[in-house]
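Before a colleague's protein record goes any further, I have to sign it off. Alongside the sequence sits a line of tokens, each denoting a local backbone shape. I want your independent view on whether this chain really folds as the tokens say. Where you disagree with what is written, explain briefly why. This is what I was given:
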Amino acid sequence: MTQPQIVLSGFGDESANDRTMDQQFSAMSAIGLRYMSIRFIDAGNGIKNVMSLDDAEIATVKQKLDEYGLKIATLGSPIGKAKLCDVDDGNGAPYKPFDAYLEEDVNRACDLAEAFETKLLRGFSFYHPKGSNLEDHYAQAVDHVGKIADVCKSRGLIFGLEVEANLIGQNGSVLARMHEAINNDALVTIFDGANIVMQGYTADQVYDQYVEMKPGLGWIHVKDFANPTPGQLIEHVDEETLKQFVPADIGDSGHLRIMKDLAEFMPTLHDRMTALGAPGVFADMEPHVRGGGQFGGFSGPDGMGVALRAFCKVCDEAGVGYHLRDFEDLKVDRGY
């Protein structure tokens, strides 16, 4: 039996200076991708988060995707990157009463995932008030994420919960515990090495957290971080000041060790995700090599290419298969 390959994708807005459709789609196709994740985009009326696109813009984006031979891997929604409590703690994330949030924002994200013909909706685990103990807010976050997963399940979609600093699910251990507590097959977790190592965790600790996430893992985000103070845990990460993002072959997350394990785990994970309706296991490039922030990052077209080639190098060494566009793809596109 042929070993399943990982499916390469990337956040289109990371690759485009002005975030226009043509810039994003040109960069994604030129570096060899067939899939991309959509987050911020200019569909002709200025840069908008995908959640704010109107019907005409959605139709325009879909037409352009077809022209470039691209499909949407995941809806890069901000669902769950919101406050649990209505407090002014310096966090720029929004707060909205949860019933309204579930009815309006979550259903809107589901509508968009359906419109862009993806089963996968990226999201987060909510912010507890800055300086508070996350355990004091853990049960509330589990309740909220569980209800989001219920909505996604009712729509035939998958909610991917990304590990990220400052949120309830700020490390792999907490995220794995949330996944187990919610116990909904419409909920998977998203591993992101840089989002863990930037908090001061060592490569061994990042690997251990990846292992904890494996029972609920759905896909991975690919970015890495050169940690100036490894082993010194940071209670709150100032995301707007982070400049140490690097390609996956030179960072401190230990991607080679992780990908070697993933090579063995791929058949199980591939079966898990295809059973849920995904085309496979995505490795979604989100490299931030020109800088990051709370609601996104930037790499540029060259930076995205550098990061993709670095990750492919890691995959080659780890024995993880992948596919980039080649001449056979062009022949198919040209009908011969």
